[in-house]
Amino acid sequence: MSLLSEILQKTHFEQWSGEELASFNPADGKELGRVRLAEEEDYDDVMWEAAKTFERWRMEPAPKRGEIVREIGEELRAAKDELGSLVTLEMGKILAEGRGEVQEMIDIATFAAGLSRQLYGLSMHSERPGHRMYEQWHPLGVVGIISAFNFPVAVWSWNALLAMVCGDTVVWKPSLKTPLTAIAVQKIADRVLEGHGWKGVLNLVIGKDDVVGERLINDPRVPLISATGSTRMGRHVAQVVAKRLGRTLLELGGNNGLIVMDDAHGAGVLGKTGKGTLEAEGVSRQRVVQCITLSKAFGVYGGAVLGTRDLRKAILNRSRLFIGCTPMPLPLANAARAAVKTLKNDQQLRLRLFQNTSYVKSTLREADFELPQTPGPIVPLHLSGERKNAALKRRLLAAGIYPPFLKYPGGPATAYFRFVISSEHSRAQLDNMVEVLTRHRG
Which of 62, 89, 133, 136 is deepest in the core (most CB within 10 A)? Predict the structure, then answer.
């Protein structure tokens, strides 16, 4: 049975004693499998095994440790397509990226194997007759690895395989969003290690932050913690480990994404040329994530319906405005469908959406803004004159508000701003928007 089949067909992993954690495919929301989480006593068992094995592993010659790492790399190479597919299924990145991440594991295994014969130390002259001085690097002990969901396997390999050739053992706490991927990697490594009689060099423990994570970073048996994640998490890890004079390797704080809704087209965020005008509009974020707006599913004109054929057909039956629409990536289509279902089933959410929409529209009408008599949570504002539009853009950006500015073939004759009201907008946020608009009008 292949690795992928073994992971997906088993569906339940019972190696620990805690509650069950379900893993889902983010593309369609379907459950992939369940893992029983580790409790504190499970963590202690894993750590005891890692600490005990370290006393023997540190004495294994480094080139022999490197040979085992090389074999792990070969096993990863053989499982590249399947493991890459599992990364895609569980984490959601495209297949090319999933396989590319496994290739990074293979590459670091090759690097680490070569490094095992290059653990050099300096040799120095001494002023004392008959003496010489030299440096020799010793293994640290058990290395703790905390990895994030966005690179569920590569980050582990960068740390674990280098730690191995240096004579250290490893305890790995992966993200709770990608437990099956971690189990698959552990199975691959175990096949090699157990074949050499080295069970306990690489260890896996899947558990909650307050149970396993806190225990790991506070454990005096772990001289080095390598953690990847948010800056907030890294700051906490650094402070806790420093209190016990431990060491940390931290990779933190990726670029924050700016969500640009797909109705920000035409002369808005994407610009007339389609090359983007984010910087020109004062938006300096480096990463932009494009999403579908829920308003599109209810027939608001403009833009494209993105989805599977059945979903598009269902939407077209409700609004003929979308004839000739373009297909959508499956994860976004299912996200839109899930959002519609949530809206249908959550009465309180619908009430908040209605209250927020009514508040904004009524307040703006009292300030003599002309708004169309539509029930949806969309507030279009038409202004005449490029200078007025430019001035309002600057005020909105200064207030942290980024509405699309639309003008496209087949749309209204004049450009307009489109504000989308959410059920989750706070009254303070809505008041901020209304204040900017009313001040500009005044």
Answer: 89
